[in-house]
Amino acid sequence: DEVDLSARDQQFRETPKATSSIPDGNYPVRVEHVELATTRSSRRPVLKWTLRPLVPEYSNRLLWKKSVLGSTDGLKWLKHDLSLCGVDLDKLSDLPAHLECLVGVELQVTKRTREDWENVHFNRRLQPGAARVSSDDPAF
Length: 140
Description:
Elements: H1 9-14, E1 25-38, E2 45-53, E3 63-68, H2 72-84, H3 99-102, E4 106-114, E5 117-125
Antiparallel strand pairs: 1-2, 1-4, 2-3, 4-5
């Protein structure tokens, strides 16, 4: 038996695609995972961050941040991000030994989208457990 779906054609055309993306805004997050890898195209080292939002409406979603370690500007932002997380290094080669120190850190971040590119900026470190608020809270 064939199922006739034609009665739903108009509704299907008018229905927007679902998105799993978290809307742009400020969010409290917890660092879930951090790993060193290389970019596909240039093979430059990159630090990949996996972040879990600490607001109920997005707690089952993730944000990602990539810190490319191939330019002075990229290294400047990496130092900023690591320092916010409590990791201050003398040498970049010491980073692998400190990755576990980053897991569990809670931060306030800003997520912005330009065209198809999503960017996550680390704003400040939060006290553990202090981030149990709604993203609608004006403090964020």
